[in-house]
Amino acid sequence: MSQSFAGQADQGADLETLARVVGRIRTNIERVIEGKPDVVSAAVVVLLAEGHLLIEDVPGVGKTQLAKALARSIDSTVRRIQFTPDLLPSDVTGVSVFNQNTREFEFRPGGVFANIVVGDEINRASPKTQSALLECMEERQVTVDNTTYMLEKPFMVIATQNPIEMEGTYALPEAQRDRFMARVSVGYPVEAAEIAMLDSHTTANPLDDLEPVTDAGEIRKLTEIVGQVHVSSAVQRYAVALTTATRNSTELHLGASPRATLHLVRAAKAVAAMAGRDYVLPDDVHGLARPVLAHRLLPSVESAMSGRASTTILDGILAGVPVPESGRA
Q: CA 113, 90, 65, 225 torsion: positive or negative?
């Protein structure tokens, strides 16, 4: 057997393993979140791409349920932080406390020291507290009193927020939004799914019976498999063309950053792996543009006054950038 053939066989087996684990995770989450397969898939994509997820929607549609269902599906450390106006940065990152017995300062970890951190209603905390997440989300580390503490992989922040038009909210700063790989909205369920929810949620909460279907070690292996997915130069150029078009658009005050391009390609690799492919298609990138790019864009004053949202502007940009032919090369 040739070395290249053996390598392809190993990769095929890895992709089968990934598909099997992803299937278990999705089935587990869908026991809690019914009728929203696209939202569930997006959450798993961000997990495998080592990103962070922002779930934005009106109250009561299951944002926190989705975050907790994903967290409980993985046998790993999970912490929940309820973001409130009086939450302090040290509550998030941790604090050094003087120990009277040892006569030394000792570090007490904050809420971010976990594999999965559920940040509930993140935009109800002050901008000062929100910014406490910046270092850990990007660099997977926390610095307190000149000492740096590394965060264990996998590390994922799943944050929920209400639309900024609602009372008691602070808009997330651009630097914070840019650190979230994707933003999704749960949306209202269809009638059949809402009726099914009444049957399954009124007698008991299915979240209480949710058991882990994988663990942190296996998730680390899956992220390595995703990292080996091939991205052709044509697909790379297409991703760059999309983000460059947002920067050159006269309808946008702020376009997508280079970090957005990186997140777009990493998420596309996760989508390809979940589809059983070891290479990314242009359609993978195209399909992810809205959840990965839209929340980073700021419409110009003229666009905002005319009622054109960033998603509408992005749709126009997507239509104007030629999609390269599909292929592995």
A: negative
Q: Is 156 exposed, middle or buried (0-12, 13-18, 19+ CB in 10 A)?
A: buried
Q: What's the pLDDT tens digit per position in 137-158?
A: 999 999 988 889 999 999 999 9
For the stretch 47-93, pLDDT in tens is 999 999 999 888 877 888 888 899 999 998 889 999 999 999 999 99
CA distance 196 to 219: 31
3-state secondary structure of 184: strand
pLDDT at 162 (0 to 100):
81
Question: In the predicted model, is pLDDT for residue 329 greater than 70?
Answer: no
What token pair was written down for 285?
């990138």
6 pLDDT above the threshold of 50: no
Closest CA to 261 of 282, 285, 278: 285
- CA–CA distance, 195 with 201 (Å, rounded to integer): 10
- The separation between the first and the last C-alpha atoms of the chain, rounded to the nearest angstrom, is 24
> CB of 128 within 8 A of CB of 113?
no
Looking at every residue in the chain, the average pLDDT score rounds to 88
For residue 37, cis peptide bond before it (omega within 30 degrees of 0): no
For residue 71, give both structure tokens.
Answer: 């967290």
Other residues' Cβ atoms within 10 Å of the Cβ of residue 252? 21
Is this model's pTM higher than 0.85 or not? yes
- Specify which of 140-149, 157-166, 201-210, 229-238 reaches the highest per-range mean pLDDT: 229-238
Residues 6+ apart with CB under 8 A from 140: 150, 151, 153, 155
The pair of structure tokens assigned to 134 is: 């910046």
Instruction: Give whole-number Cα distances, 136 to 107, 143, 155, 157, 265, in Å.
Output: 16, 9, 9, 9, 21
Overall size of the chain counted in residues: 329
Strand 147-150 and strand 141-144: the pairing is antiparallel
Angle at alpha carbon of residue 148, lines to 113 and 224, rounded to 5°: 60
The dihedrals phi and psi of 283, each to the nearest 5 degrees, come to -65, -30
